[in-house]
Amino acid sequence: MTDAVIDETLDLLRVAREVYSADRAAIRLIDQLEVRLGEPLRLAIAGMVKAGKSTLLNAMLGERIAATDTGECTRIVTWYRHSVTPSITMHLTGGASARMPIRRSSGLLAFDLGGRGADEIDWIDVGWPLEGLSSAILIDTPGIASLSAEVAARTERFLTSDDAASSADAVIYLLRHLHGADVKFLQAFRDTAAGAAQSVCAVAVLSRADEVGSGRIDSLLSARRVALRYERDGDLAALALRVIPVAGLLAEGARTLRESEFIALRELAELARADREALLVSADRFVRPSSATGLSESVRQELLTRFGIFGVRLATALIRAGAHTSSALSESLVEQSGVRELQDFVRAQLLPRAPVLKARGVVMQVQALLRRSPREGSERVEARIERFAASAHALRELELLALARSRGLPVPPEHRTAAERILGGQGPDPRARLGLDAGATDADVAAAASSLVDRWRMLAAGPLASRETTAVCGAVVRSLEEVLATGEVGSAGSAVRALQSAPDVHMTSRPGDGPGHDGGEQGEQDERRLRREKWLQHRSLRSQRHPLR
Question: Taking the model in full, what pTM does it have?
Answer without folding.
Answer: 0.81
